[in-house]
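If you are new to this repository, start here. Below is one unmodified record pulled from the training split, so you can see the exact layout before writing a loader.
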Amino acid sequence: MNKKGMQHLSLMKFATLLLAAALAGCAHQPARQVATATPVMTKARQDAISADQALQILKDGNVRFVSGNIETRDLPMQTKATGRDGQYPLASVVSCIDSRADPALVFDQGIGDLFVARVAGNVVNPDILGSLEYASAVAGTKLIVILGHTHCGAVKGACDSAVLGNLTQLVDKIRPAVNATPDKRGGDRSSKNHHFVDAVAETNVHLTVKELLAKSAVLRQMVEKGQVKVVGAMLDVETGEVRFH
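And here is the target side for that same chain:
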């Protein structure tokens, strides 16, 4: 055999050895699990979930979000299914408009899983109360979450008595929380004291829960009958962790 033939034979042998090594390596690899997409909420699933179970689902979802172990979802499929068969969310969430406080993301939920009302400072007004009444009394959700968060800009505005167009009347709704919150880490009660700001945000959640029950006879009666549960929660925007009250 000439030199060229020997070189060709050597290359073929080398390629054969590489292929054998690759196949041997694959044989030692565990079989990869095929992820299954999370199904959509249906009327049957919604009916079967209690308020406490819905709350646990959100808690578990937040754990997944913080750890980065979020569930696989076929969003186009969920869009088609909920568009065709209707929506049956497991909970309603009132949250701030803050870009870091998206309830569906921080609770690792998909399309059709949550009713969400968003407004700066996660306050309630007649429109939001009416929306929540629809969600619970008509659409069947059993859990309402008032979700505040750390480093809230609306709360900072309330601490500083901000004046700016329609924002003025909005931050005025948070002023009772400012007044009800004791000093934190010194006597600075302005937005410069982030410890005080976060304490006010938490107070604001508590007061909003009370206001919801005081101003909505529909929801108050549902709570008294055990049909609906209303809870407050705080999101730490630095970690993504949600702490429920």
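Two things worth knowing about this chain: The longest strand covers residues 143-149. The radius of gyration is 26 Å.
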